[in-house]
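Supplementary Methods, section 5.1.

A reviewer requested that the exact input to the structure prediction be made available. We therefore reproduce it here, unchanged from the version used in the analyses.
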Amino acid sequence: MWCLETLSTDFLVNAEVDGLIESLFVVEERFLDRETPNFIVSQKTQGDKQLVLKAAFRNLADRLRRRGYLAEFRWIVGRYYVTLTPKPSEKRRSSDRNRLLFAATVVTVFIDGYLRSNNPVLTQSLMPGTPVFLNALIFTLGIVAVFGIHEMGHKLASERRGIRASWPFFIPAPPGLGGTFGAVISQDEPPTNRDDLFDLGIAGPFFGFLASIVIGIVGIWLSFTVQVDQVANWAISYPEIRFQQIPMPVILQIVSDIIRPATKESVLVLHPLAFAAWVGFLVTFVNLIPSWQLDGGHIIRALFGRETHKIISITGIFLLMISGYVIMAVIIAFFLMREGTESMTPLDDISPTSLSRKLGLIGYVVLMGLSLVALIQV
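The structure derived from this sequence is encoded token-by-token as follows.
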């Protein structure tokens, strides 16, 4: 919470700040609202009103951030308002917790990879002589890269727009569940406008998708095509092993058809690294669901606004359910029913998104379609 009591009326007439606002807008009126400075402004230069005001406010917001203030742009009863508030005090970030969680996650993912790799099909039939330790290490590198690059995409997009963001916080999970529940970053401030909100939302899935493709290419190359009869024999010889057919994301299926094409008489047995890529595409797909505070929710919020975001969020829940993510759908539905849990609100929530971001909706849909991992057949 911001402490506005420390803000005196002297700030309203501060020559530097006042001059900065007047250099970008026509200031029609100044007043205090509960100690908060408000400026009623209008367009200063010629051109399309929305685009001129949008550019002027971005300029103002970026320059005020460096001076320790946040500016908010609002439209109230036919007039444009600029409201100034002090920035939240910058938290001194310690990376000790990040390192500890990262180390714990590496351990749990490695144990998970070891358990997946230590089976007789790999050690005796497909990869004799290859240490289980090596396959577990490769799996760990793949999983950590997928989640780490995804979150670093968010961090780079944030800091490119002048928003401080933490390093990724990895979340360890019990071996058998992949060894991790993923990773997150925290941001200190809201994005400037809807363009920035779109960029923040798409950056993580985009970079995570690219990382998954690279890992998937190498993983499929390390995988095996095996005759169906051989798999049946293994099922008899190793009853303790569960042979399970998993749905392939579209893009990984394309990669496998090129590198390791299977026939009607054969199946593809994934190397642990290929499974890491599979997890990467699953994470990308789930994050692109247009609901709540998922990355897809931020994208839809940026393109269509707050009210439409709420409606589409319900559609996203149904999409999760028909794709087989029932538990995830229930969790998101629960949070959607709570106030204050919707997507971030940018400082300028009235200016439209740019044409490039609107066209980016096509890329968003393509990215989701290529990453789709449907856990049930529809």
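The radius of gyration is 25 Å. These observations are discussed further in the main text.
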